[in-house]
Design goal:
It is built from seven helices and five strands; from the N terminus they run ααααβααββββα. Strands 2-3-1-4-5 form a five-stranded mixed beta sheet, with helices on one face. Helix content is 45%, strand content 12%.
């Protein structure tokens, strides 16, 4: 939802949100699907959007906020176009995952769960990526990268610039 010059088109986002609100206004149990759709539109859930959803569904804002903060799938801050997840599971931990994380963190200039100012990257840790044989491992979006060193992890990010 952007204009030809690359800027975000807020009116298109608002129109898409209004369409979603209309679609779910009479659906029982619509809070989570509507939050998911709103996050798909905005990339995260701004307070104003959550307030609009609460009002539309007739649920208290505290309930909407409670759902958003309970489920890890929802985000209250803008996230990067590329989501980096560095595994911190046992196999990855013993093979140097913390050094991999530190290398990526230093390169991007962000801490855990941080997003770069240009919204290119968000850096997260996860308990396990299920690729223990490739430890240490990180995922960038849906791509898994294994047998990493800090330098190899940092150079991997060049593919996503």
């Amino acid at each position: 939802m952007s204009c030809t010059c690359g800027h975000s088109d807020e009116s298109a986002k608002q129109e898409a949100l209004l369409t979603a609100l209309d679609k779910y206004k009479t659906v029982k149990g619509a809070l989570i699907p509507l939050l998911q759709e709103a996050q798909e539109i905005y990339g995260y859930l701004p307070k104003e959007v959550m307030q609009q959803i609460s009002k539309s569904l007739g649920v208290p804002f505290s309930k909407t906020f409670g759902v958003v903060t309970f489920y890890a799938q929802f985000h209250l801050k803008p996230r990067g176009r590329n989501i980096i997840r560095v595994c911190q599971g046992t196999a990855c931990h013993v093979r140097g995952a913390s050094k991999v994380f530190d290398g990526v963190s230093k390169k991007l200039g962000v801490e855990k769960n941080g997003t770069t100012e240009d919204l290119r990257y968000t850096l997260e840790t996860v308990a396990c990526l299920g690729a223990c044989g490739l430890a240490p491992v990180m995922m960038v979006n849906d791509d898994t990268h294994g047998r990493l060193t800090p330098d190899k992890a940092v150079s991997t990010l060049e593919k996503y610039e």
